[in-house]
UniProtKB/TrEMBL annotation:
GO-annotated biological processes: purine nucleobase catabolic process
An annotated Gene Ontology molecular function: allantoinase activity
Signal peptide: 1-23
Keyword terms of this UniProt record: Signal
Record lineage: Eukaryota, Fungi, Dikarya, Basidiomycota, Agaricomycotina
Protein name: Amidohydrolase-related domain-containing protein
Gene Ontology cellular component list: cytoplasm
UniProt entry tagged with the keyword Transferase: no
Pfam families (alphabetical): Amidohydro_1 (PF01979)
Residue intervals of the Amidohydrolase-related domain: 378-483
Length: 953
């Protein structure tokens, strides 16, 4: 039933309501007249108003005419005829045209109106000739400036010993402008980085987005991308939004020196509870001020606490948190924390298990964090053991943003783009792979209005590449930061990349099956392949490489692109025919039907070899329970008498572990079938574990145990010593400053002159080294120390009438003595293959294009030195074939494919005196292309020693 209201009733109600409001206003007016309004009322109200402002750029930012980072006197630049990857539309936008840079700002992209640049008096025009142009690369996890190169104890400024929670610390206060990594990063196209405190604290302090360009001011502050208004105590305009701030948090293993995981989460909760108290007090204070209740806050200062002001900003949503976190258990704890205190996380870093728990990540308060990860650097500690190369693609498939990072100096800042290239190789789409080091990264930290994209109004950070940026070895031709050109003009870049193919996105294999298996097995899928001892026929073979009778690599067959692909027949692991299908199959005799494998234009090539890492010596490098244990170092303590040997020389073969994941992944993913490992171990922060790490062994990486036929290639391969200046951060075994160089060389001289009885292990093997019956591999970096060792070699040979087989391993500065090393007939194994000025002994590197025309590798080869390459850590062995590709590409055409193969196969065999005869040498079949191309993957290993073919898929 509907009831009609009479007009006079409605009127009476309205009159009553009006009277009530009038009475309330009179009462409020009366109260207001009795309040004492403080003189700074407007200041207080302005500050209170600013608390509600969301962080970000002002609305007018994109219309700016000049950058706050503009260096007066910088020419405007017009980049013409470019293929421009802008980073816009999730990285899918590609324009053909020009880019105009002026006064530190991108003025136009694509079709640039001539009227924009015609009036400019000082204009530099660059013809890109159709080459790719991208935004400057952005690394969101770097310790550049905080761990400056070369590393020194005095400049180790990343972690605080003053408790797990230190949000008041600022990375800028430890940022060193003399870091040699700045120029190296720029040489890789990196223009901006997030300089993070370390992960040794739960809340490690405030991070800063930095430009790598050295400014005319020369100060750390002048390198900050967008300084928060509070950085120098400047006042905040309440009418403008505040700038984003950045902070580092961490959980898991790295914080355990302060307690357990439970202690860490409690430390978080306690800190955020204190911050919440301050925030609530501020909100209450402002509520009273804005209501005019000045009497209730008379005499009170605005509630604030310097210790917790950063966390208060976190709770107000004004801080982009980068959270170091690896495992599901830690993600769960932090996600619960964000919901308890209601604050967002910008990124989870490292995040080895993130791809296994996407739904958990999506429960983070305020939205799903981006995930900043390595491409292939996994298993270095227990937390990262389940990390996967397929994680970027799996995360993207779950609509989670992916960022690739270096954690410099863990990975050289220069090779950030290589992380994106590898992510693409293992399945991440091209636009997301490039976005992962540009636009996605910039967006994740609130900086996409300035960096990571090419659009009008953005910072003038631009890279011109010699090839498609996802092509392995892509190198900057030019780099601009704030419109300032950064690279030398007299270095050749891109020789050998003139063909159209280099401008295209590289094709990559299908890894769908492997991805599914990875998730199914929670990161630890079985890696053992299926074997076939009968006949296997490989069809559609493009090329075949094999060893000749002298043990060198030769090309046996190359199919003409205009004719039929080749066929290769293998019986009981032995290659019996390589040629046309007609010739190889006509006389084929097999008791059972052969297995047919289509290589899709792929290659068969000798298995690769790796040296330098503790591959097979440990499963998880930072977990002692999975390794050999600590060596006795005669220079840091007495060797137990039970050894009966002064130097305590031991054999790697006694500690070999077969079936480690790094070894199997190197075998099945990269065709690395043989490894030589010693007991030597050096980490980024700790020097060598012994001056005399003993005797190395050579083994097959795919073998299941030491008793399997062919598993041990050579039980004793070489004698190893380490000569170098003390490590700046941790001495041998992390204890003390280390031993002097003069002491090390004096000891080596004595031992080579039969200073110990030949009845001892030390005496026996140093005698063999002096006689030249076993290689003496010396891990050394400094050219000065190498010079002393060359003199020592000459002295020992004259004194004993022998010829020694000496190899310099590591050898960062070997290029400075290339001619002398060649004359002394000393070999060189470069580790890493691309130089890095890690410590003082490594500082004089020859970086190669785009900084220098020569590389160390090229210079040594030009002087006739037998050179090979190695890997310092076990996880890096899986990238061996990419290292060979890089070596060839950086040589500007001076290293051909045959020479590249030799760097990680026959040259290593010669230097280490590991002779694997032609009839026992493994071959690797790759589908889809050359062993050195991104289009290929390992399909099978052909093993004559074991009489079988092992299939990877």
């Amino acid at each position: 039933m509907t009831t009609k209201r009479r007009p006079w009733v409605v009127g009476l109600c309205a009159l009553f309501a009006a009277a009530t409001i009038l009475a309330s206003n009179v009462l409020l007016s009366s109260q207001t007249r009795t309040e004492r309004i403080p003189k700074n009322a407007q200041e207080i109200l302005g500050r209170c108003s600013s608390l509600r402002q969301a962080a970000g750029p002002p609305p007018s930012f994109a219309k700016r005419e000049v950058s706050d980072r503009f260096e007066p006197g910088t020419n405007a630049t017009l980049i013409r005829n470019a293929r421009i990857w802008t980073g816009v539309d999730n990285g899918t936008q590609v324009l053909h045209g020009d880019v105009l840079l002026d006064r530190g700002v991108v003025k136009a992209v694509g079709k640039v109106d001539r009227r924009l640049y015609a009036p400019l008096e000082n204009l530099t025009v660059v013809d890109a000739k159709g080459a790719w142009v991208t935004p400057g690369l952005v690394d969101l996890h770097s310790h550049v400036g905080l761990l400056p190169l070369p590393s020194m104890r005095a400049t180790f400024d990343v972690n605080s010993p003053h408790g797990p929670v230190v949000p008041w610390l600022r990375a800028i206060d430890g940022f060193n402008t003399h870091d040699e990594a700045f120029q190296l990063g720029i040489a890789g196209g990196v223009t901006s980085v997030q300089a993070l405190p370390g992960s040794g604290n739960a809340i490690g302090g405030q991070a800063f987005m930095m430009k790598l360009r050295r400014t005319s001011d020369r100060s750390p502050s002048s390198m900050i991308l967008e300084p928060p208004h509070s950085i120098n105590g400047t006042s905040v305009d309440s009418l403008l939004p505040p700038r984003w701030r950045h902070m580092k948090q961490a959980c898991g293993e790295n914080i355990k020196w302060y307690g357990t995981r439970m202690d860490t989460v409690w430390a978080f909760r306690q800190a955020y509870n204190e911050a919440r108290k301050v925030k609530n007090a501020q909100d209450d204070f402002c509520m009273k001020a804005e209501q005019g209740l000045w009497g209730s806050i008379e005499g009170q200062a605005f509630p604030d606490d310097y210790r917790w002001e950063m966390l208060v900003d976190v709770l107000r949503g004004r801080v982009k948190i980068s959270h170091h976190c690896y495992e599901a258990v830690d993600f769960d704890g932090i996600v619960r924390l964000t919901n308890e205190f209601q604050f967002p996380i910008a990124l989870f870093h490292h995040a080895s298990e993130a791809y296994l728990v996407p739904d958990l990540l999506k429960r983070t308060w305020g939205g799903t964090p981006a995930i900043a990860i390595f491409a292939t650097n996994h298993r270095y500690k227990r937390e990262s053991y389940r990390g996967s190369e397929f994680a970027p693609r799996i995360l993207a498939d779950n609509d989670i943003r992916v960022v690739m990072k270096t954690d410099h100096p863990v990975i050289n800042e220069r090779y950030l783009l290589n992380e994106a290239q590898q992510a693409h190789y293992y399945g991440l789409s091209p636009h997301l792979a490039l976005a992962a080091v540009t636009s996605t990264a910039a967006t994740a930290v609130g900086m996409s209005h300035r960096i990571g994209v090419l659009r009008t109004g953005a910072d003038a950070d631009v890279v011109l590449w010699d090839s498609h940026p996802l092509q392995l070895g892509a190198t900057p031709v030019k780099v601009w930061i704030d419109g300032v050109q950064q690279l030398p003009e007299d270095v050749q870049v891109g020789v050998g990349k003139e063909e159209l193919e280099w401008k295209k996105t590289p094709g990559v294999p299908d890894w769908g099956k492997e991805r599914r298996e990875t998730v199914k097995w929670e990161g630890l899928p079985p890696l053992k392949g299926r074997t076939e001892e009968g006949t296997v026929v490989f069809t559609n073979v493009g090329r075949v490489w094999a060893k000749d009778e002298e043990g060198d690599i030769e090309e046996l067959l190359r199919a003409d692109v205009d004719s039929e692909m080749a066929t290769v027949v293998v019986q009981k692991g032995v290659l019996v025919c390589a040629g046309s299908s007609l010739s190889c199959l006509h006389n084929l005799k097999s008791s059972s039907p052969p297995e047919i494998v289509d290589l899709q234009g792929g290659t068969i090539a000798p298995g690769l070899m790796t040296y330098g890492s503790p591959l097979g010596m440990e499963e998880i490098p930072s977990e002692p329970s999975t390794g050999n244990g600590e060596l006795y170092d005669p220079f840091s303590g007495d060797v137990p008498k039970i050894m009966g040997d002064t130097a305590g020389v031991t054999r790697a073969v006694d500690a070999l572990q077969f079936g480690t994941r790094d070894a199997l992944l190197s075998y099945y993913r990269a065709g690395v079938t043989v490894a030589t490992s010693s007991l030597s171990k050096t980490t980024l922060f700790v020097g060598p574990n012994s001056i005399i790490p003993g005797l190395s062994a050579t083994f097959r990486t795919g073998a299941t145990n030491a008793l399997e036929g062919g598993a041990l290639v050579k039980e004793v391969t070489a004698l190893h010593v380490t000569i170098g200046r003390p490590h700046p951060i941790g001495g041998r075994n992390g204890r003390g400053p280390g031993v002097s160089v003069s002491t090390e060389i004096a000891a080596l001289r004595r031992l080579l002159l039969e200073g110990e009885s030949k009845d001892t292990e030390t005496g026996r093997w140093f005698r063999k080294a002096a006689e030249g019956t076993i290689p003496l591999v010396i891990d050394v970096s400094s050219a000065d120390i190498m010079a002393s060792l060359l003199k020592l070699k000459e002295y020992i040979e004259e004194a004993r009438g022998t010829t020694m087989r000496i190899v310099f391993s590591h050898a960062t500065e070997a290029h400075l003595l290339a001619q002398k090393i060649a004359k002394a007939r000393v070999g060189v194994i470069l580790i890493p293959s691309r130089p890095f000025p890690n410590v003082w002994d490594d500082r004089r590197i020859l970086p190669g294009p785009p900084l220098t025309n020569d590389t160390t590798l090229v210079k040594l080869m030009n002087h006739g030195v037998t050179v090979a390459i190695g890997a310092p850590e076990g996880w890096q062995a899986v990238n061996t074939r990419w290292d060979l590709t890089w070596a060839a590409l950086e040589s500007n055409g001076r290293i051909d494919e045959q020479q590249a193969y030799a760097l990680a196969s026959t040259n290593l065999e010669k230097l280490l005196n590991v002779r694997i005869p032609k009839d026992k040498a493994d071959l690797v079949a790759y589908t889809g292309g050359s062993a050195l191309s991104m289009s290929s993957k390992v399909a099978a290993i052909v093993s004559p020693e074991r009489g079988m073919v092992e299939f990877v898929q």
